[in-house]
Amino acid sequence: MKYEISTGPALLPVSVEEAKAHLRVDGNDEDGTILSMIGAATAKVEKETGRALMSQTVKAYWDTWPDDNVLELPIYPAASITNVKYIDEDGVLQTWDSANYTSDLVGMCARVMPVPDVDLPEIGDYPNAVQVTYVAGSGTTNVVPEDLKYAILTTVALLYEHRVDMPLSANTPGVRTAQWLQFSHRQNLV
């Protein structure tokens, strides 16, 4: 299973004003820089937690139906299922009728599964043959856990105070700011 964010969030979980208060910055000269740092810090927190902090649309893909017929959604919290699609044996993308499946959107392991006595549609032998589009995250910043907001503010402060690539900790030699920010974008090579 893999996924992509097809529509990013309209809001960030921490405002420029909140970050400026945390940084003790007056004036507006650095607003653009601080906004970029909030975006980078938010992306890092989301990648490391698997959690969508603000409302965004996620598309998840599977090559086949899982053996247990349960599609586990990769990003939480899931708010709603937009659709379930599949590529049929003729290579045509079809939308599976929502009456044929149910969803469990509670907690970190949101999932989609067929209702009892419904057979899964036949899919073709194509990559990404099963697709679930759903909305994850919250539409309001007051639902974002305070500890994650503080993690974002702390990261913004680190980036703001140290605008060069630098070692992050004497306890982890070789870990540098740029490497740390890039970590969640890495591709594991086998």
Can you give a write-up of this model?
The chain is of the alpha+beta class. It folds into two domains: 2-53 and 140-185, Orthogonal Bundle (Hypothetical protein yqbg), CATH 1.10.3230; 56-136, no CATH class. It has four helices and eight strands. The model has no long low-confidence stretch (mean pLDDT 90).
SSE sequence, one letter per element: EHHEEEEEEEHH
Query: Which percent range fits the helix content?
Result: 25-40%
Mean pLDDT: 90
CATH class call of the largest domain: Mainly Alpha
Major sheet strand order = 1-2-8-4-5
Topology:
Elements: E1 2-7, H1 16-23, H2 31-49, E2 56-62, E3 71-72, E4 78-87, E5 93-95, E6 101-104, E7 111-114, E8 130-136, H3 146-161, H4 177-182
Antiparallel strand pairs: 1-2, 2-8, 3-7, 4-5, 4-8, 6-7
Looking at this protein, list some descriptive labels.
elongated; 23% strand; 5-stranded antiparallel beta sheet; Hypothetical protein yqbg; 190 residues; alpha+beta; 3-stranded antiparallel beta sheet; 4 helices
